Amino acid sequence: MEKVKVISSLISTGSFNDFVNAIFDLSEKQSSSYVCCANVHMVIEAYQDKAFNEILNNADLVTPDGRPISLAIKFFDKINQERVAGMDLMPALLAEAEKRGKSVYFYGSTEEVLSKIREQIYQDFPQLRIAGTYSPPFRPLSEEEDQAIVQQINESKPDLLFISLGCPKQEKWMAAHTGKVNACMLGVGQAFLTYTGLEKRLPKWARDWSLEWAYRLYLEPQRLWKRYLVGNSLFLFLILKRLIFRSY
Asked: Which InterPro entries does the annotation name (predicted)?
């Protein structure tokens, strides 16, 4: 899929269904690949960190997760790009995986959330095979622990490996495990919580107006104020800079 540059990040373009099919094409190869879902926060992290920018740009696919990202592509590249959010992509992939007889694995979050995911999948997609789940401790894994979980994942032979560790941790994890984990890895962040209903999403009209950041800021002001108020302001500045000077 063609990629275009937003700030310093290469974002894949195509319809929502194009992304779904491309992800399953990656899984058919039965080798390591990874998919990032890029919102404003991720793009700004990449702009400020060259090493992380390389990780993002080396991804097999980078979806335009945030509405401002898809709008920037539409404005500057003249591509009518729809938003492809991880929160929408994960349930769509689960449904398609059931139809195609594929298996899924979930890495990250807490045991409570993973248990809720199993319950929801049994209800929504009773024929879908869950290859496994793993909630890592809130500390770096030792080399031995990491090797053990990689072996466990590979022995379970998942087609899709959904990862929820938060940005940029999950993207760094996927890059570090490329060539080790034999699956298509997808960093989907908050999708674990929204799929289970543990975190509510705004109505579609509010999402179309790019207001999800404000809702999340309301939920976690102390943790997220800098990310959104500073990061979003920098994003707008860089977009305006390109608009005026034709460059970032």
From this structure: WecG_TagA_CpsF (IPR004629)
Edge-to-edge strand list for the sheet holding 160-164: 61-64, 33-38, 184-187, 160-164, 103-108, 129-134
Mean pLDDT of 87-112: 97
Return the SS3 of 248.
Answer: coil
pLDDT at 246 over 90: no
First to last CA, the chain: 24
pLDDT confidence of residue 200:
74
Q: Which element (helix H / strand E) includes 98? A: helix 86-100
Encoded tokens for 217: 């800021």
Q: Between β-strands 33-38 and 61-64, what pairing exists: parallel, antiparallel or unpaired?
A: parallel
Place of tokens 């560790």: 165
Strands 9-12 and 3-6: antiparallel
124-137 pLDDT per residue, tens: 999 999 999 999 99
The residues with which 106 forms a beta bridge, in sequence order, are 133, 162
Strands (E), the chain: 3-6, 9-12, 33-38, 61-64, 103-108, 129-134, 160-164, 184-187
> Cβ atoms within 10 A of the Cβ of 213, count?
20
